[in-house]
Amino acid sequence: MDIVKGPVRQDDGTIKQELQRLDAQLRIATQPIAVRYTADPRCADQDPATRPTDGLCFDGDLSPVPDDVHVTFDRPTGAITYDASAPIASLGARVDSATALFGDAKKLDARIDRLPQRVTVGFRPAEGYDDGVDVTTDQRVGRIKAKITDGTTEAPELVDGQAKVALRKLPGQFAIAAQLYEIAGGTIGLVGYAPDPAKPEEKSTRIAAELHLGPLPDGSRQDIDLDVRTDNPNDAVPEPMAMTGRIEDIPDDMTLGLDAQKLRYTASTRIPKVTVDARNLPQGKAGDDLKGKPQNVKATITDIPTELDVDLQNLVVTPKEGEALGLVDFELWDVGSPRAALPVDNRNKLQFDKRSGNLHIQGRLLPGLRFARLTLPSGTGAETGKLKVKTQFAANPEPLDLVMWSGMGGEDRSRIELTASELKTEQEFEFIDRNGLRVDWRSNEVGTDLHLGVSAKEVGTDVDIEDLPTQAFVCVVGNDDCFDRYVLGRFPVNGKLVEVPVGTSIRTVASGPVVVSGWICLTPTTTHGTPSGAVYDSCINRTASNRVELDRLEVQSMTFGVHTGETVDRNSSGNGPEEDNLLLLHLRTDGTGLRARNINIRNTVAEKLNIIRAGYTGKHPNYVREGQPLFAIPRAPGLPAQFTMLADLDLPPNKEDSSGTLNCGAAHLVTTVELPLLGTTNIFPAAGWLTGVCD
Predict the structure, then answer these.
(1) Is 516's pLDDT higher than 70?
(2) What is the C-alpha to C-alpha distance for residues 368 and 394, in angstroms, rounded to an integer?
(3) Which of 238, 630, 665, 666 has the fewest CB neighbours in a 10 Å radius?
(4) 481 — phi, psi (to 5°)?
(5) If 0-12 CB within 10 Å is exposed, 13-18 middle and 19+ buried, where does residue 197 land?
(6) Is 353 contained in some domain?
């Protein structure tokens, strides 16, 4: 037996000679062996209360051994080496040290079962790791069970038969407990890194693992439980990070990394299931505001391909190219608790909650996902920014239900509901609910149906869009993107230039026909047309009093704007508008024009109803699609095909201003308004009232 000592710095700063290497070689008949090294006779006492608190104790035991055995314990590398003429059943080692063996470790208790003829097992972090265990061997080991602590921290429990890795790295606490079967090598631990290379002083922590495991003796694969708790008092997260998880049917080779930015996974074969629940992911520096930034993640992923990368900050899911995931069930949030599980049905689901500046995302994506990117709105209040979604599926994806909540609470709140049926293998879309709803759609195939519901203070929608083309931009209500800039000008009324707002607008730019039906709802008004109240859920519930009802609006690229009511400008006495009972119509068309069975502009409180029909004849419900679509005819060649008209509907009706004309007769145009005394009247054309409108 060869014992090598060397200088070791003690906790009090003094230097002592302590064990550095224990090297024993035996040639004996087959029998169990116990080995003990001690610099203090009290090491023979197994009672922790009476074992020495200085120096080093080493206890080892071997099951019946072959006739030539060479065992080495190397303190600087934290490694135990077994080299013999034949395998053995078991080797145990226990080390107690008053000073650190490596890192924060002062106590090691390990057992290795079913050892091959030669094996080295290391119990200190691998290069580049802050804490953890590193195992190297030239052949598989049947089992490694180890607990490494700072001498005072309680190590997590290990249950025979269940593979597990548990790590505790907290201020004043350190413990590792690991049990793995049929292991051919691996590393598990914590890695410090700088998320932002421009700020190297801001450190965070990544959980990292690399495992090489064989099948169990019965041919099955082992499941591994993960349990990690760590804390960096200098980061922005006040509570310790706690992560639990399970990886089922571990393949021969696997790597895993998890931090506040990414989840990375590679493996030699697909695996059936991974679950992760990580809270208080470390990030930033002390004092940073993490409101609205992901700090917690829960996920269950099934049928995982050999590569998977999940960007938790930018919400990008990327499996190996050409391969698809199974079920993806996930939740990501900043503060608070997880929410109830989403309903289980045959529908993809995404929910985004940005209310009050916080963040909570929940989703369930059904098997077949090949790629997903979810770009969140950047703002928190009324200016919510864009939500972008891009998905790729293997084939025949199920419908998608998407909900987004935003706003700062109270009257500043909104909700968008999007339902996509007949989803295609590839689609990308973005939408925004800033004073309206804008959807920009891209797909590799035609035929997706969308339902769009908006619930906000000043606007609501409950509309369906049929058979979307491969590219479609659809914008409704008052968003600036929804109407042409020249409509925002001022109009001559009573010899003055006054502003007439666009109450409702629809704009489409598409690669093929777009068919829109449903309700667009505006702020309720009094009987005199003065805004009063809010929309919120009244549109989705179909109880809104001030609305535009669309019945098969068929367009491709078009802008349609309408306003009924009064001017923004007040009269000279200030007791009312400059003019009320106005009708503003704006239409800009491409070569396909506009058809509509009905566009009903209705205000049940003010008892107003205006109806526009084009490209259809007949009456409800027996409409006939015939004639030309409605076109705007430019004033001169080379000018935009647009029509704008402002009319005063007081008796007798008259034009205040107009530009361009319409193909009224060819399109069977019917424009019905309610006039004093005359009731409902078609004003295009009307005897001498609104001349010069129809071409």
Answers:
(1) yes
(2) 5
(3) 238
(4) -70, -10
(5) exposed
(6) no
Task: List the structure tokens of 242.
Answer: 């706690």
The pLDDT of residue 271 is: 94
**Structure tokens that stand for 27 in this block:** 């040639």
The CA angle 262-263-266, to the nearest 5 degrees, is: 130
The string of DSSP codes covering 231-243 is --TTSS-SSPEEE
Which residue, among 542, 545, 541, has the nearest Cα to 533 in the 3D structure? 545
Q: Which amino acid is at 351?
A: Q
Residue 181 domain flag: no
Beta bridge partners of 497: 492
What are the pLDDT digits (tens) for 674-689?
766 566 777 776 555 6
* Alpha-carbon distances of 538 from 530, 532, 610, rounded to whole Å: 18, 14, 21
Expressed as residue numbers, the domain containing 619 is 506-567+579-649+667-678
- The answer to whether residue 261 sits within a structural domain is no
**Structure confidence at residue 382 (pLDDT):** 38
Residue 610 lies in a domain: yes
200 sits in the region (left: phi over 0; alpha: psi -120 to 50; else beta) called alpha
pLDDT digits (tens, 9 = 90+) for 655-673: 888 888 999 989 999 888 7
pLDDT digits (tens, 9 = 90+) for 142-192: 999 999 999 999 999 999 999 999 999 999 999 999 999 999 888 888 887
Whole-number Å distance between alpha carbons of 105 and 97: 9
Lowest mean pLDDT among 121-135, 295-309, 330-344: 121-135
